[in-house]
Please model this.
Amino acid sequence: MSPGAPSADEETLLQADPRLRQAIEHFNTAEWYACHDGFEELWHETQGPMRPVLQGLLQIAVAELHLERDNRRGATVLMGEGLGRLRGCDDVALGLALGPVRLLAARRLEALQQQADLSVLPLPRLEVARGTGTAPVH
Model:
């Protein structure tokens, strides 16, 4: 995606990119490192309004990767940063409903801040927004 491309087309171009679908699949199967790689590559190539969406999802994935590696401090920082980025985004972006992932990230961040057990909370998932016409993501 070139920086000179019209931003109105950015979301459509990203949705058509197979790397986005792959990153979403990695996110939903808790393959955090692979997910990180996919979202990071797209984020580096994106300059328009979808950039903070990609960065927020990337940061949440990296937070979960930190948790896998028993780095609660790093997880807390990145979960907060990712959630902060997604809070500034529309409720639907890239064909995804951002509300549910924001809610789960907020619950997980609160548990991290309270030194609570995260195993009782579900992992964040990316859900297709209703009415977007996008095929379901597994």
Summary: Residues 109 and 120 are 13 Å apart (CA to CA). Residues 1-6, 134-138 have pLDDT under 50 and may be disordered. The two ends are 26 Å apart (CA to CA). The longest strand covers residues 92-93.
